[in-house]
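Board notes (copied after class):
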Amino acid sequence: MGITLNYIESDSTKIYYRTSGTENSPAIIFVHGLAADSRFFHNQLKYFGSFFRVIAIDLPGHGRSRKTGALSLSVYSRSIEQVVRKENIGSYILAGHSMGGAVCIEHYKNNHHRIRALILISTAPRIPVTMDMVERSINDFRKFFDEMLSAIFFKKAGIFILAAKKSIDNEEESIITEDLRICMNIDHTGILGEIDIPVLLLANRCDSMISAELTAEMQNSIPGAKLVIFDSKGHIPFFEESESFNSSLEEFLTSIQ
């Protein structure tokens, strides 16, 4: 199943997104986290494109999508709405990783009547970002970024770290710092109990960025939420445990059809 790169003109800029699958299939939208973009979901675009209409978005300021003003959860949520309108999608499943999970919860607040299910990956209602982390990213970004990449990736980390170091520029550095500020102020604890659609929580047991315990705690607050913990390191279970991740996600998606 082929992957297509598309874009939508919005607010004097372009929001890019990748698609796979057919228009008549149920839609699932993937939302990346801090310092990432839609390419992170290449495996899921290929795998689930046979059964679903799969979309992975470059949030504003990330990947190919440019930044035109201040970034925020609402700006990120609005970019999902814009892509949904462009693709003429009525209802959809949302899957978000890390900061992207918070974007999905924020999006749910104003679009709950259209969202069929939530898939929250390696995330938490309060993202564990501190002012110290923000200041370190400002004072010595390269050192901070090196440490962050080592915590994010586990398998074949050297390849990804080298690629990330080569590609990042000054604007992207400022966007990562801006995202850290956004994450520091996230608090979705009050809305979890109001989520009344199927929810799947996934995490790596030895994640040093956002602990599996923080993700697992959401199961106690979200009625009927399902939890899958992979016995692995790293912050990206759909990379570290791609086969198990896809299998768990497929089982969940089948159960809600």
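Comment from the instructor: The chain has one domain: 4-256. The chain is about 40% helix and 20% strand.
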